[in-house]
Amino acid sequence: MIGLLLCLPAALVLGVGFVWPVALLARISLNRTTDMGAMEEALSLETMAKLVEDDFTWELAWNTATLSATCGAIAVALALPVALLIRSAPPQWRGLLSLMAVAPLLVSSTARVVGWMAILGDRGMINAMLAFAGLTDDPVRLINNWTGVRIGLTESLMPYACLVLIAGLGRLDSRLEEAAATLGATRTRTFLRVTLPLAAPALAAAFLLVFVLGVSAFVTPRLMGGGRVFVVATEIFDLALETVDWPAAAAMAMLLLGSLALAMALRAVVARVPR
Amino acid sequence: MSHLTLEALTRRFPGAPHPAVDGVSLELGQGALLALLGPSGCGKTTTLRMIAGLEVPDAGRIRVAGRDVTALPPHRRNMGVVFQSYALFPHMTAAQNVAFGLEMRGTPRTDRPARVQEALDLVGLGKLAARKPRQLSGGQQQRVALARALAPRPDLLLLDEPLSALDAKLREEVRDEIRGLQQRLGTTAVFVTHDQTEALAMADLVAVMNEGRIEQLATPEAIFERPATRFVATFVGRAARLPATVVRPGLLRVGDAELHAAETPAAGAAEVFIRPHHVRPLRDGESAENTLPATLSRRTYTGDLVTLDFTTPAGRLIADLPGGSQGSDLRVGDTLRLGFRAADVRVFAA
């Protein structure tokens, strides 16, 4: 009873700050936009239908999904060695190493983008080095395009992947790897036959989390894409604040929310299948 | 010729004040079972892990079947290890667990199913081959772990407290099974335990360890009846411990009494150990090498044994008598004479 009572403040904040705005958004998505561009109170799926019929919506969805999947997969792949290293480190070092792995989260994503600009820009660190080495005449475009967004998004997702993997692999009993070694397995075979299969649930959980975060990422695609990269999140922003087509922005947001919920449900079903 | 030889094996963990294992040397013959017995932190598990190759010794050598394996990684040592927690692969069935070692050791694919079945039949689990570890009971998991360790026909079977996770009744059953299997297959084995009953019941040879060193390496009988050090006498079995003074070789002053002992240290302060099963009540006119008048102060009935606490001029003595035997019906306050042999009085310098 007291436990429930103590949860009340959090429930209140969630209700006012999340549930209510989403409900409002859902209501707006059912409104119509007149030919003049004004919002008209209605209860119709017209706006949503228009979006679904529009090829550009599907292009956006495809862009967003492939971007998040690629960056998410790379982030998880890069985080795995980090998590494995932290797991095998002496206990007194694990805390510090874990903190270092997730330290990028302590820096605002806008500040990180500015950092990337200094590194990836036409006159940034990498291009300066390439030019100095005489490898390139013209600067390689590493930012303000899809390449830039991929680099930035992967980097910003990695700490989350680390966080999930460190927690997931921490529960993996190192005796199992020792047992494999005593049975004649080399380190490589131990990794492929024992460590990796047992880490699979953690890898899946990490991928799902960073995929979802990637789909809803706005700052990185917006700032590192230089206006040339269009994903669902940037489109919602443009619809709401540039075109000022609130019903369309709300409908797009609801479609995104719906597909993410579907992905989560799918994952829950897959996880319940006995292996 | 010895099958397993340890030479001055030493392991010091970084930052630890004392070495975990400190110059352990021993030899074990082919087909014998050695128990490393000692309290937690005595270095027995570290010794086992060094033999397996899971821990690298700072000094010393390990030889198995004439081959120096000290520098070899675990996967090149051909040893079967049963871990305390069994460490079965949870994502594989019992059969796949057993097949893993065969595959890694290069057993031809066509031979594997028969070898897996053979190993599982050996531990009586032939019918549960398709089960995952979580679908097996603790005792069954233990048996799968044993089958997995034995299937590749290892040079040495290493067991780290394999019975500690089982309940008392099952423990005895599995204990006898492991021993029977080890003898039948003629596999040389090393067994780590803190349970003296396990060590005494299973082993051909017991090494009692304390603070990284072997206190005594001997047969179970010798360990129990003729402990070499005060630590062994204290750690293995129960005993009445009495402060004493060595008067001259063979004669001790214990409390207000004089006792004869077969072996005594140099004159001076000492401690006397007398095991409960060596002390017996004497009939009228019966004599013994040591006799003491005694008064029964407490009687504890445990079914097959009656434990009697006596007050004597030498101090408090304990006697274990089979339930229903002569003297077992004594009552608190009864007085009588106790007798025991000089050879059963163990004396250590204090």
Description:
The complex is a heterodimer of chains A (275) and B (350). Chain A has 275 residues and is mainly α. Helices cover 76% and strands 1% of the residues of chain A. In chain A, helix 3 packs antiparallel against helix 4 (91-102) and helix 11 (232-242) runs antiparallel to helix 12. The two termini of chain A are 38 Å apart. The model of chain A has no long low-confidence stretch (mean pLDDT 92). In chain B, helix 5 (168-185) links the parallel strand 7 and strand 8 (189-193). By secondary structure, chain B is of the alpha+beta class. In chain B, strands 6-7-8-3-9-10 form a six-stranded mixed β-sheet, with helices on both faces. Classes of the chains: A mainly alpha (275), B alpha+beta (350).
CATH class call of chain A: Mainly Alpha
CATH topology of the largest domain in chain B: Rossmann fold
Q: Average pLDDT across residues of chain B?
A: 93
Largest sheet of chain A: 2 strands, antiparallel
**First-residue to last-residue Cα separation of chain B:** 39 Å
Give the ordered list of helices and strands of chain A: HEEHHHHHHHHHHH
Structural class of chain A: mainly alpha
Taking all residues together, what is the mean pLDDT of chain A?
A: 92
Q: Determine the strand fraction of chain A and express it as a percent band.
A: under 5%
Point out poorly predicted stretches of chain B. Answer: none
Quickly count the domains of chain A. Answer: 1
The CATH architecture of the largest domain in chain B comes to 3-Layer(aba) Sandwich
> Could you say what the CATH topology of chain A is called?
MetI-like fold
Structural class determined from secondary elements of chain B? alpha+beta
How are the strands ordered across the major sheet of chain B? 6-7-8-3-9-10
What does the overall shape of chain A look like? globular
